[in-house]
Write a structure and sequence with these properties.
Blueprint (H helix, E strand, L loop, with lengths): L7 E3 L7 H6 L4 E4 L15 H12 L3 E5 L5 H8 L6 E2 L8 H10 L6 E5 L2 H11 L2 E5 L7
Parallel strand pairs: 1-6, 2-3, 2-5, 3-4, 5-6
The structure holds magnesium ion (MG).
Magnesium ion (MG) binds next to loops.
Length: 143
């Protein structure tokens, strides 16, 4: 697949279902945070995010949040109730944090997907790490 395009596109994270993850043999899902799993205005995980994380966990898919956001305390506070590890100040498109995370949890690039909203950071980092790049359009607005 071209470096210029994501391997799969979704409207929102909820559309990445456990069924799709299973079909695509994804065992490690690296997720961007801002505008992928939350809007900047969301200080706590939304209910649908907590449910989605739980569904992924039941499907035996490990989630690790990898963000360029440098606000360590905010990220820890956000991620802790979800029970998912987080990496802050990842400096995507540099792919070193993606590779380190795969090594830390013992997953191969072929078992891994990077999910994010931005081509210039998330998609490129995935390409450099030689993992699949899945792109979401946006985090939906809360009505
Ligand atoms: Mg983002």
């Amino acid at each position: 697949m071209s470096i210029f395009s994501a391997d799969k596109k979704f409207e929102k994270f909820e559309d990445v279902t456990p069924e799709i993850l299973k079909k695509e043999k994804v065992k490690l899902l690296l997720c961007d945070l801002d505008n992928t799993l939350r809007l900047h205005s969301e200080k706590e995980p939304a209910d649908e995010l907590a449910e989605w994380v739980e569904d992924c966990r039941k499907a035996k898919v490990k989630i690790v949040i990898i963000s360029n956001n440098g606000r360590k305390k905010m990220m820890q506070k956000f991620c802790e109730p979800l029970g998912v590890p987080c990496v802050w100040w990842a400096r995507k498109p540099v792919s070193v944090k993606l590779t380190e995370t795969m090594e830390k949890y013992n997953f191969k690039p072929s078992e891994t997907v990077m999910l994010g909203d931005k081509w210039s950071t998330d998609v490129l980092a995935a390409k450099f790490a030689k993992v699949r790049a899945w792109k979401v359009e946006h985090r939906r607005n809360i009505v």
